[in-house]
Amino acid sequence: MTDTTRRTLLALAVAATPTLLAGAAGAQSAPSGSAPLPGAGRAAIITGSSRGIGAATARRLARDGYGVTVNFLTNRDLAAQVVRDIEAAGGRAIHHQADVADPAAVSALFDVNAEAFGGVDVVVSNAGIMNTDPFATMSEAAFDRMMATNVKGTFNVLREAARRVRDGGRIVTLGSTIVLQCPAACGPYAASKSAQEMFASALAKELAGRRISVNAVAPGAVDTDLLRGKGSPEQLQAAAAMTPYGRLGLPEDIAEVIASLCSSSGEWINGQVVFANGGLQ
Q1: CA–CA separation, 36 vs 164, rounded Å?
Q2: β 120-125/165-174 pair status
C-alpha cells in the first residue's frame, strides 16, 4: 500500500467517525420496548372461536398484534363479545358467520378476512363437534354431522389455508389426546380427531419450500362448556386427578401452546402432533 493510499484511507476514516458515533448514540438512546409485536401487520383466522379454546386463542393472538377474524356458526353474540374484548385491549378483530362444513362459506370467510386485513398468515382450525354415544345408539344423523364438521370441515379450512396463507405462515388444527386412550363411546369422535394428525402431517409436506409450519395440537381434558356438557362433576374431578397438576386444562393453556407454534421460534416444529394435556395419564 502506497503512502498516498494510506493517507486517503485515513482521511475517509476520520470523516466517517462523527457519522458512526452519531449512529451509535442514536441506537443506544432508542426507547426500550419499541420492538414491534410478532403479529404486527399479520392476520389470523380462528374457526369456532366464539367461546372455549377458540375464543382464548383469538384473544391471545390479538395480544401478539394479529388482526383476528373470529368465526362462529350460531353464537353471534358471543363472537361479538370476543371482538369487543380484543378491541378493548387495543387489538383488531372482526367476526363472521360460516359453517366450516360448507366449502363456499369457508371461502367467503377467507375473503372477508382478506378484505379486513389484506391477507392471512395464521389459520387455526378449531371448530368441532363432540358426540360420544356408543356405536349401538349413535344416530346416523349425529355421526354424519360430526364427520361433516370435524373431518370435512377441517379439510375445507386446510384446503383454503393451503391456497391462501402467505409464505412463512402457520397452520394449526385441533386434535385430541383422546386418540391415545379411545374409551368406550368415543370411537367415532376419536376417529375424527385422528384425521387432524394425518392432515397436519401430509399438508406440512405439501407446503415444503414456503416456510409454512403445519401442526396438530391435541388437548386433554379442558374446562370448556363442551366438556362440562358431556361429563358429570364426578367425571370432571376424576379427569383432573389424572394429571400431575391435579386440575383440568384451561382454554388459555391451549391458546399459549398455539401462540408458541405461531411464533417465529415455532418454525422448526412442523408436521407434528403436540399433546397439550398437562401430563394426562
Answers
A1: 24
A2: parallel
Supply 105's cell numbers: 362459506
The amino acid sitting at 269 is I
Active-site residue flag, 245: no
Read off the amino acid at residue 23.
Answer: G
Residue 44 is given by DSSP the state: E
Residue pair 233/274 in contact (Cβ under 8 Å)? The answer is: no
> Which one from 117, 155, 189, 275 is the annotated catalytic residue?
189
**Type of residue at 256:** E
Each residue's pLDDT tens digit, 163-186: 999 999 999 999 999 999 899 999
Cell numbers placing 191? 376417529
b/e map of 9-44 (b: 16 or more CB within 10 Å)? eeeeeeeeeeeeeeeeeeeeeeeeeeeeeebeebbb
The C-alpha cell that represents 140 in the structure block: 346416523
Domains in the chain, please, with CATH?
A: 38-276 (3.40.50.720)
DSSP-derived pairing of the beta strands 213-219 and 273-276: parallel
Q: Could you tell me if 93 and 68 are in contact, meaning their C-beta atoms sit under 8 angstroms apart?
A: yes
Which tens digit of pLDDT belongs to each residue from 45-65?
999 999 999 999 999 999 999
Q: Which residues of 50-65 are buried (b: 16+ CB within 10 A; e: fewer)?
A: bbbbbbbbbbbbbbbb
